[in-house]
Structures are given as C-alpha cells and as structure tokens.
Design brief:
The complex is a heterodimer of chains A (about 170) and B (about 150). Chain A is mainly alpha-helical. Chain A has one domain. Chain A is built from six helices and no strands. Chain A is globular and about 55 Å long. The model of chain A has no long low-confidence stretch (mean pLDDT about 85). With about 150 residues, chain B is an alpha+beta fold. Chain B has two domains: about 110 residues, Immunoglobulin-like, CATH 2.60.40; about 40 residues. Chain B contains one helix and nine strands, in the order βββββββββα. In chain B, a hairpin with a 3-residue loop joins strand 6 and strand 7. Chain B is extended, with a radius of gyration of 23 Å. Classes of the chains: A mainly alpha (about 170), B alpha+beta (about 150). At the A-B interface, helix 1, helix 5 and helix 6 of A face strand 5, strand 8, strand 9 and helix 1 of B.
C-alpha cells in the first residue's frame, strides 16, 4: 500500500486535472473567445468532436472517478478520510446519473417520457449546469482531503499506511 | 419558414412557432461558401436533438432532428467562410409554443450559475495544484511550519 498509494494517487490526480483542463478550456472558448457553446469543445474535442457527445466517454470518466475514489480511500487517515468519503458518496450518485444516461443512449429507450437521455436530477436542473455542479461538489472535498492528507498531524502520520508524506526525522 | 440572422439563413426561422416539429434544420449563407461549419440543435435545457449525420454542402448545413415534445429549441452555428470571416450565433424556434428567451447573433452564454460554478472549479483546480506542488515533509503538530 505504501508506495502504491502515492503512485496511484498521482496518476488519479493527473486524470482529474486533465479532465478539468478540458472543461476550463471550454469555458475559456465560450466566455473569453465568445464562441457558441456547441463550437466550444475544449482541446481534444476540437480534433475529435464526437468525444464531446459520447456517452461512453462521460460514463467512462464517471466510472474511473468512482473506482479511483473508492480504491484510494484506504490511504486517507484521520481528518482527510471524511472529506474523501464525502467526495466518494457524491460521485457514487453522479455515477448513477451517468449510468441512467448511458443505458438510455445504448438501448434507445428513454426514461421519464423524454425524447432524449435524461437523468433524475436533470428533471430539475439542465444537464450542462447539473454536471458542472456535480464535478465541482465532488472536486472541492477532494481538494480539502488532499490538503489534509499531505499535511498530516503527527498522530495521523503515525497511523499512515502510505508514503504520500515523507516520515519526519525523529 | 425561413429566417435570416445577418448573412446567415436559418430554417426554421429565428423566433418562429411551428405547429409540427421539423424533420431537419438548415443553416446556409446564400452569398458564399463554408470553409468550416458547426451546427448544433438542442432543447432550451441543452439536450441535443440531432437524429443523424449532418450533411454539409457548399453553403448549406442540414441537420436531421428528432423532436417529440413541444418546447423551445436552439440552433447554434459557427461558420467560417472561405474568406476567413467567422459567423456565429444562436437562433430559437418553438414547437407547439412560442419560443422563450433571446437569440444571440454572437453567442455569449453568460449564465451566472455556469460562471459561478466555473469560477469555483477554477479556484479549486488552482488550490489542488498548490496542494500537490507544495507537498511538505511532516513535522510535529502545533508549532508546525511546513516546508516544500
């Protein structure tokens, strides 16, 4: 667990930050460059437009997030555990929402009497705003958890099962 | 029903109300040719209603759509003419009802909720980069001074 947690946490953070980089690139294209939303497809989407509307990609990322949050949770000790768990719980529901969308897109059977794939919370909040909200409220507790995980108390460091923070000289 | 937004013609027309849903949406520039064209059709909730591959001809983009419920639908386009001139905008039409909202000749979807969430996300990403880049070594608690 020791070195593996540090390595996989770093890999996970690269994936998460790359995902945010794409979304922020889209926001830059919309708000700063003034492009219409459909023409603002981030960096990868400019070269592979199908990525933006691919339910496989959206569901795949939601699944990777869920697996990462679950698998890496064991390494979070003390104060950071609660924040990481909060992110995991929210991501679990976010993943269920994407699963609903994915099933509808793959089977062609739409739920809730809608013409297009629709998730539960989408009945109240539009899709774009909803998933931006989900991604944000999953990420914020992750930031807090990472801050606490990488700045443990001595007690937490004694209980640490990973090498994310170097042991202090005693 | 046709409608024109500057040098761009959109069918169904901007602001029109249709009794029956259209089978396709067409965006064209009568007096020129495209070098690049992107057209998207979605409900006012942002849900795409495109039902098949887009057909792009010299000066016309045809997007097949499947609309099964009444509501307001948006046509967003971003066209680059062969002379390099960019034409971008959003038009609206209604199916069964009058379209709501305002069309934009040049789209700036500055929804305050989206902007606020994007701001929070940007701040969080910066915070995460800070947390990761300034990874400290551990020292005893309380009078702790973390080092890089």
């Amino acid at each position: 667990m020791t070195v593996k947690h540090r390595t996989w946490l770093n890999v996970f953070m690269v994936i998460v930050l790359a995902h945010w980089a794409e979304h922020l690139a889209q926001a830059f294209q919309i708000y700063v460059l003034g492009r219409p939303a459909p023409a603002s497809r981030g960096v990868l989407g400019q070269f592979f437009p199908w990525l933006v509307t691919s339910e496989w990609l959206h569901y795949g990322y939601a699944l990777v997030m869920l697996i990462g949050l679950f698998a890496l949770r064991r390494g979070f000790i003390g104060r950071s555990r609660g924040w990481w768990t909060a992110a995991l719980v929210i991501q679990f529901w976010h993943h269920v929402e994407h699963l609903l969308l994915f099933v509808q897109a793959q089977t062609g059977t739409m739920f809730f009497g809608k013409a297009v794939p629709t998730s539960v919370a989408q009945l109240i909040v539009p899709r774009v705003e909803l998933h931006l909200l989900y991604n944000t409220i999953v990420f914020v507790p992750m930031v807090v958890a990472m801050y606490l995980h990488l700045r443990p108390t001595v007690e937490e460091l004694d209980r640490a099962v990973c090498s994310c923070v170097a042991a202090p000289a005693r | 029903m046709r409608g024109s937004t500057g040098a761009v013609t959109v069918q169904p027309a901007d602001g029109s109300t249709l009794v029956e849903p259209p089978a396709q949406v067409r965006v064209s520039i009568p007096d020129g040719r495209f070098r690049e064209a992107h057209v998207s059709v979605a409900s006012d909730a942002g849900v795409p209603v495109t039902s098949g591959p887009t057909l792009t001809q010299e000066n016309t983009v045809t997007v097949p759509v499947s609309i099964t419920s009444p509501g307001t639908y948006l046509v967003a386009y971003h066209l680059v003419r062969t002379d390099g001139h960019v034409l971008a905008g959003v038009t609206r039409f209604g199916v069964g009802i009058a379209p709501s909202g305002h069309s934009m000749g040049h789209a700036h979807p500055g929804d305050p909720i989206n902007l606020a969430l994007t701001g929070v996300a940007l701040a969080s990403v910066i915070a995460m980069l800070y947390v990761l880049s300034l990874r400290p070594s551990a020292r005893p608690r309380r009078r702790i001074r973390w080092r890089r």
